[in-house]
Amino acid sequence: MIEKKAWAVNGYLALILMLALLIGGIALLIQENLVGIPLIIIATILGTGILVVQPNKSYTLVFFGSYIGSLREPGLWLSVPFAIRKGVSLRVRNFNSKTLKVNDIEGNPVEIATVVVFRVVDTAKAMFDVEKYEQFVEIQSETALRHVATRYAYDNFEGKGLSLRGNPEEVSSELMQELQQRLMLAGVEVSEARLTHLAYATEIAGAMLQRQQASAILSARQIIVEGAVGMVQMAIERLENDGVVKLDEERKASMINNLLVSIVSERAVQPVINTGTVY
Fold first, then answer.
1. 210 is in which domain, residue-wise?
2. Structure confidence at residue 92 (pLDDT)
3. Is-above-0.90 flag for pTM?
4. How far is CA 80 from CA 134, 141, 178, in A?
5. How far does the chain reach from its first CA to its final CA, in angstroms?
């Protein structure tokens, strides 16, 4: 069902007309003129159609089981008398999901939660196409979060592809797109979807922390070794180009060994002074 605008006229003019009919009807009854009775009845019927619309709120009107339209312009209005009115808020709202336990693409249990910013843009769909659109938003948000979380690993230790921890913007963007597709049925527009909680489940948190630490140490060592090799290569080339010393292969290997040990070692290296030769 698609939202449409309901018939309505200015409520202030309607109030003036109602007062005129009431006053005229009462005056005629006082004069014992029965014409005053239908005037009062008409004024009473018109009174049932008076509706006050607050800012950022909409009312759907149902007349004898048929949807006849919605009113969302703020103000005082006269619409169809005897119509049933159901109010729908058009304000932007937040939904904070519960912390869910799901398995990532590698099968590791993770805890994840999200916040969804949404608003109703089609009141007819929100009221008539789903049972309760607030509960629909909650259930579909958690379902979409579970679905998106199973597509990625919690962390990518090899540095390839996307991960939940390393690419929160991309994951949130995909979550928002999937939510929008799911919630179109309820006439809801998703403004933003963000991860608010992400952690390994308690049963594997300790093991994964050790894995992260080992991976960090390995990455740091790799950078140190690459830097050390570059420094040693630069030092040897500088010595040879400046003619400071001529090194044969054995002396060059010894110097490389000493320089690498001094650069890569975690502790301060104690120098050994050689007063003789290396042979």
1. 205-264
2. 95
3. no
4. 28, 37, 39
5. 94
